[in-house]
Design goal:
GO terms for molecular function: 3'-5' DNA helicase activity; ATP binding; ATP hydrolysis activity; DNA binding. This protein is an alpha/beta fold and 683 residues long. It contains 22 helices and 21 strands. Bound molecules: adenosine-5'-diphosphate and magnesium ion (MG). Magnesium ion binds next to helix 9.
Amino acid sequence: MSLKLDQISVRQINGVSALKEGELHAFGVSTVKDLLEYYPFRYEDYRLRSLSEVKDGDKITIQAKIASVPVLQRYGRKSRLTCKMLAENWMFTATWFNRHFLKDQLTAGREIVLTGKWDQRRMQLTVSESEFPDKGAFRSGTLQPVYSIGGKITQSWIRKTMGQALEQYGEMIPEILPQSLLRKYDLMPRKAAIMTIHQPVDSREGQEGRRRMVYEELFLFQLKMQAFRALNRGRMDGVVHTADNATIREFVRSFPFELTDAQKKVELEILHDMRSPYCMNRLLQGDVGSGKTIVAAIALFTTVRSGFQGALMVPTEILAEQHMRSLQKLFEPFGITVGLLTGSVTGKKRKDLLASLQMGLTDIVVGTHALIQDDVYFRELGLVVTDEQHRFGVNQRSVLRRKGYNPDVLTMTATPIPRTLAITAFGDMDVSTLSERPKGRIPITTYWVKHELMDRVLGFISREVNQGRQAYLIAPLIEESDKLDVQNAIDLHVQMQQAFPAYSVGLLHGRMTLAEKDEVMRQFYSNEVQLLISTTVVEVGVDVPNATLMIIMDADRFGLSQLHQLRGRVGRGQHASYCVLVADPKSEVGQERMQVMTETEDGFEVSRRDLELRGPGDFFGTKQSGLPEFRLADMVADFKVVEEARGDAAALVSDSSFWTSPEYEPLRDFLQQEKIFQGDIMD
Ligand code: ADP
Ligand code: MG
């Protein structure tokens, strides 16, 4: 059998050196398949326009005839080149800055294609790119893809390489959807769709390609969930938890606070599932600070007192350690042992822990992805809890679940989304919602200021730190590159060290090693660091009650729910807390977002307004909303497709031929790769 695209390294593509291979790795691209599925997030439009239809300020491409002798003015090393142009019946001026060398090529009567910004009032085009049709105009008339890139990878390199990859391997792109579905929605074949997404001939075709892949993405996602559900539905052979109520009440009474009504209600829902032979698969959603951890602790306690072990899986090491500490405090008085398993737990420590888990000596283990490694065994796993749900896929949860004999599964997410959306997005789960936060919290005051007030913001930092508090300063986000984000944070760190020589200023970003990150977080927890400069890596779950000030630079670049998550890092102690959004948003939506943040502190309200503000085609929209992430699809904008795909997937998996017919083999392969096995039914 010939190789599949996911078995061919990008090195096999002409023009990809070892160095470039390494750079591509940073974007999660290592095989030809990865590259071909690395889609552009927008297109540069070089299609020819007519001056009769353009608007002031548009970026346009037009074909024109050179109608005068060019005039060159030099100012020191700078220059300005102007020339009259004729397009259809319009006369206008084309202006180039610092392109004096073009002068000799601008001969009257010659055709030229110009791209630039149109000034309607002055009938002038400020040219950014130009091409001559008599020399072959390559860009003109086309849509050029724009990829998310950084480092040594340039747009032109990735465009060229993508073209090369399509030429070498395009023919091998397999179809994976069954014919019946292609016909039902009149979808483009997969090969054609992927090709046209990278090299659209026109926007209609590009859109058809996108439509096909959006459907495929959503369908595969739903297939995964529906298969998982079908394989587990109605299973009455789950763990039956038998811990009696009095024992659980004793644990709850040991907390330094009363449960909120919302916590009590959710606790009942969870305990009801846990006590029944039905396999619990429940999503617990609640706003930041609504007290999900304590609910998870009750469930974990229940499993231990019923004679089982529990596992808590979180997305980062920092979080794992944090949870480990707080759970230990809660469980110690009850003689329940808690272990920690992360990537940094190695050697003898790891071996001892694994042995102890297998023998059932450790009751509860908190960890990262390290928990789902093959050599992790439990004596009797009764409950799996995963925190910050959207960072784990269904498949990862499924792997952890398989480490026990049908353990109950509780999944927590801090990003509240409307219930209807939640049910569809997480179609394999029942949903519980923590709708209120503990009483007595001091509200977080949110301010929105312009950059010109940065001095005052710095003054605010001094005030808080001088009172013994701590502050976060979040560096601006550059959507196209993680490396630039890091650079921003590094620059900001240097500036703040200069601005606050008396304080210890820490730096945290995604390109640091785990050990480095942990060390900085430890210093921040212990107040050895007063001001923490960070990228969004602190977004999830970090809990430092003494931190009272959250400053977010260029806040308009962040999505609403991400801003809300970041704000949730403060207001966790007994001191008044503040969130300062530093932003000069240009768009109305950007201004609106800042407004929403200053108006409400309620996560459900933020999420409702977020969905309202995000229009269709908001490519990056979903990224921060707590909904599953897709390469092309958008849970909100493409909601209708989500529902269709869900119905199609459900129908398919309930048809017994799905598990045997050769037509569905690519889909079964997919499920297997995603670690969802038919064997789940039988084991
Ligand atoms: P999240 O839902 O964001 O994970 P946590 O579980 O971290 O929230 O809880 C935030 C803080 O609120 C913790 O310090 C926790 O101890 C505290 N907390 C939880 N439940 C209550 C309650 N019912 N009353 C008062 N404080 C609570
Ligand atoms: Mg939490």
